[in-house]
Amino acid sequence: MSFLDRTFKLGERGTSVQTEVLAGATTFLTMAYIVLVNPSILSQAGMPGAAVAAATCLAAGVGCILMGLMANYPIALAPGMGLNAYFAFTVVKTMHVPWQTALGLVFISGVLFLILTAAGVRQLIVSAIPRALFSAISAGIGLFIAFIGLKDAGLVTANPGTTVGLGDFHSPTVLLALLGLAILAILEVRKVKGGIFIGIVATAIIGWVLHLAQWTPQAYSVSEMTATAFKLDIPAAIGIGGKGFGPALLEILFVFLFVDLFDNVGTLVAVTKRAGLVQPDGTIPKLNRILFADATATVIGSMAGTSTVVSYIESAAGVSAGGRTGLTAVVTGILFLITLGIAPWAQAIPAAATAPALILVGGMMMAPLTEIDWADPVVAIPAFLTLVTIPLTFSIANGLAFGMVAFAVLKLATGRVTKSDWLLFVLAALFVARFAYMANA
What we know:
Helix 4 runs antiparallel to helix 13 (287-304) and helix 9 runs antiparallel to helix 10. The protein contains 19 helices and 4 strands. Strand 2 and strand 3 form a beta hairpin. It is 65% helix and 3% strand. The chain folds into 2 domains: 3-131 and 218-349, no CATH class; 373-441, no CATH class. By secondary structure, it is mostly helical. The termini are far apart. It has helices at 3-8, 17-31, 34-42, 49-71, 83-94, 99-118, 121-128, 131-153, 172-189, 195-209, 234-237, 247-274, 287-304, 315-320, 326-339, 351-364, 377-393, 396-414, 422-440; strands at 77-79, 156-159, 163-166, 309-311. The model has no long low-confidence stretch (mean pLDDT 85).
């Protein structure tokens, strides 16, 4: 038995080194956009773009490797979309908190994650989610992924009259994405090993050859990471020598904690379910190790100079390519670290090449819907609300909130409350408070 087989239990999970490497590369390709998008967002907060690009690669690389080695799961980590926008546009630009202080708050939230995980609080919260919602979350994230893919491909565009509309079929990006979707679908139907990875690369090559995809490298140096590395201001974040730890900073910390926790829960449910790693009773083995890995990655990311690190729903692409162990995550992490030196060229893979993978993977994540008892309204209504709210509000946390609150209300209304439901009602109450706060904000 080889070292890799012993370390990652490849034989036990029915996979191979070749499959895991392909899966890791597939995951990397579908989420490599973060290397470009994260700096573009955080630079709006006054942070140096090149430094954020390096920090993004470092945080994602270390986070993925930690996940693979600590938990042995094919789940990739990187600075989270949504939280980076909250960091830049709400915390820094609207609330006028210096980005160094905001990084300090990210660091504190990561430390709190570690404490809550060690105390078993995060695991309790995960166990409090009704099993039916797990299936709805998985499918809802599938719709979310597919919607992102359709948007990136240009197949779905904004429309002032109907909210969304059909894209321009004269656009080279749309035509390339459609061709890529056809290639990926055919490879999947024919059960070609590593078909998603092959399809992405083939689509990208076609785009380059036919000049349907363009990219412009930017000046960059890995040494420029020092512009954000260790620039976090923890004393300011906790109010030492300043105006004190006021409600505004407490609110920011709460959002970092809240959104990261529930976005991660949704991603973990979706990816582990897709990989067949969830136990028959719905529990996720080694959950505490998974949570420790993402919390540690957030702490490291804040020190490098980026916003909260989270589990990525794009990990499902690697799982669909055959990834079943932490070796997939380690490969993804190594590719991110390699990208430290070639960050400007990450955009060489056009969105039109990766978007079809997101669409296809999203569609394949609909399977868990068959596990929901749609004949029981107490189960079906919360599941439906979760399913549609995730993609339509662009938020996994919102989907969880609607599902949990609906479940609690219907359980009360039907008298189906048990002693073990106490945390469900606590969480539902917190979600209601969150919606009330958002309404008054």
